[in-house]
Specification:
There is one protein chain. This protein is of the alpha/beta class. The protein has one domain: NAD(P)-binding Rossmann-like Domain (Rossmann fold), CATH 3.40.50.720. Helix content is 50%, strand content 15%. The protein contains ten helices and seven strands. A seven-stranded parallel beta sheet has the order 3-2-1-4-5-6-7, with helices on both faces. Strand 2, helix 3 and strand 3 form a beta-alpha-beta unit. It is globular. The mean pLDDT is 96. It binds nicotinamide-adenine-dinucleotide (NAD). InterPro entries: NAD(P)-bd_dom_sf, Sc_DH/Rdtase_CS, SDR, SDR_fam.
Length: 262
């Protein structure tokens, strides 16, 4: 039996001894998630298509004392996702947590999309998630343990303006969540999605400066009257990525200031 102090100390680093892959971790919400999981004790494998920004992010993560490997590449390609899992296994011998955060919207009225922007939207958000899940599930299954946390979008639930194509991609992520959760429920693997509304990323802050009306419109549907903070998404991810969330699977949990309810 641990003493209350020991129990508290272990709670303070709930992911100690765990290995977490975070995709799209070069900046924004992904970097915030990696910082949080690293602070919570996980060794990190971070990945992103933007090699230069990823290297800077990996440096920032190492500065916090986390053990970090970084792998650049386009995760909408199967080979990159396979290489990412191999990189984690080679470095740390196990994969406990996968956070599928790589993504991002090409937010346009549906008819303003081009074939390229439609394909980009699906590639970035759905194929990255699908390939990374396929790459990490076999080693997780072998060890009988895994936590997969996808980043979806609350806009799937409220049909936010100009989000139809993005919602098609993120809706795919939400659907993958329930199917994988059922399929691997008896393998010790949980699969959940965190669905944020508008989040105050550096990018959103810039957009708000240039086009305040656009961001005000997205915030107008949020009862709390503000965008979310990146840390408010990361804390939900950290919970779902931990052992404490052992009976939670197949859920899409919105971090959204109430913009959709239930
Ligand atoms: N910011 C918001 O308001 C908001 C709201 C709801 C959901 N989300 C989702 O949260 C996640 C993070 O968003 P963000 O705002 O921090 O975006 P961001 O653009 O700052 O970060 C996304 C990262 O993913 C990387 N990425 C994209 N495609 C990739 C690919 N094919 N392979 C590897 N890396 C790739 C990008 O290079 C980028 O660094 C995304 O999935 C996004 O769709 C964001």
């Amino acid at each position: 039996m641990s003493t209350p102090a020991q129990a508290w100390a272990s709670r303070a680093r709930p992911h100690e001894g765990r290995v977490a892959i975070v995709t799209g971790a070069a900046g924004g919400i992904g970097l915030e998630i990696a910082l949080r999981l690293g602070r919570d004790g996980a060794a990190l494998v971070v990945a992103d298509a933007d090699a230069a920004r990823l290297e800077t992010a990996a440096g920032a993560l190492r500065d916090t004392g986390a053990e970090v490997r970084a792998m650049p590449g386009d995760l909408s390609l199967e080979d990159t996702a396979t290489a990412l899992a191999a990189c984690a296994l080679e470095a740390f011998g196990r994969i406990d947590i996968l956070v599928n955060n790589a993504g991002g919207g090409v937010i346009l009225p549906f008819l303003a999309h081009t074939p390229q922007t439609l394909k980009q939207t699906i590639d970035r958000n759905l194929w990255t998630t699908l390939w990374c899940c396929r790459a990490v599930i076999p080693p997780m299954k072998e060890r009988g343990y895994g936590r997969i946390v996808n980043i979806g979008a609350d806009s799937v639930r409220n049909g936010l303006w100009d989000h139809a194509a993005y919602n098609a991609a993120k809706g795919g992520v939400h659907g993958l969540t329930t199917g994988l959760a059922r399929e691997f429920a008896r393998d010790g693997i949980t699969v959940n999605t965190v669905a944020p509304c508008a989040v105050n990323t550096p990018q959103l802050v810039d957009i708000a400066k240039q086009h305040p009306a656009l961001v005000e419109r997205f915030v107008s549907v949020i009862p709390m009257g503000r965008a979310g903070e990146m840390a408010e998404v990361a804390s939900m991810v950290s919970y779902l990525a931990g052992t404490e969330a052992s009976f939670v699977t197949g859920q899409v949990i919105s971090a959204n200031g109430g913009s959709t309810m239930l």
